[in-house]
Amino acid sequence: MSTLHINTPLIESLAIGRGVSSRVWLKLDALQPCGSFKARGVGHACQVHIDNGATSFVSSSGGNAGLAVAYSGRRLDVPVTVVVPLSTKKRAINLIEAEGAEVLVHGHDWAAAHAQAQLLARCGAVLIHPFDDPLLWSGHATVIDEIVQSGLRPEGIVLSVGGGGLLCGAVEGLLRNGLSDVPVLAVETEGAGSFATAYSAREHIGISGINSIATSLGANKVAERAFDLIEQHPISSHTVTDREAVAGCNRLLEEHRVMVEPACGASIAAVESGAAFFADKQDIVVIVCGGVGVTSQLLAEWQSI
Ligand SMILES: *Cc1c(COP(=O)(O)O)cnc(C)c1O
To answer: Would you say the pTM of this structure is higher than 0.70?
Structure first.
């Protein structure tokens, strides 16, 4: 069977690359059918589980991961339940329901929703974790496969980090394409700096809370694998402010007419503020991870932060 994700465009961006010596390429995963790169890992995980006899899926994410599970369930003709906390926006619930999934509102935070999802999983549904699952990482790794297949040999990868699933997948993709020396700039907003915190402490610790509009980066603690990679792969940690992340969103919208969440705008912003990473590098690829949690109205509201 074909994959549930699409092969997304890889375009050179003179505009985003203005001011840095490298050539800057954008891998436009905002164009995935469910709006983010999550289609890759979640789609892959769901397909493998179906091959192994799964008959239903459950997710604990009211964000892009939950939407990707709902999308995958629809494509694979398998029922999906998404457990989301009370704080989840009506718009997110509508998007998940539009994919045909059942939304169950439970608890005040992600941990409570996740615990409920784990209970459902005990009754036979397969739980798809939003970031901490090797199957997910293998699927995310296809983003690097596609870059290499296009004929480009990147000398640096810029990506956003929430729980670190995309980071783990990108590194897996680099390794399986013989690019183990290609460094990764791991970008977060300051108020969602769980990777930055573990990175500077050289200890697998988390943060006590999320204080950022980049809600898709809001994991209190990154996956253990993401932490372990610090010692195994050239990775630099970089944070931007919420304001810079929003400016990144605006810049992408103005220059390329693509609208993304601040979680993704952070990586666009990092091209400017993380320029030291690009010194002496020819071609760098920014993974435009996307996200559906944005509208022109939200973007306008965020101008005042
Ligand atoms: C999930 C997500 C992230 C963070 O990905 P992780 O795999 O959790 O690190 C970043 N941006 C967007 C738009 C996302 O959906």
So the answer is: yes
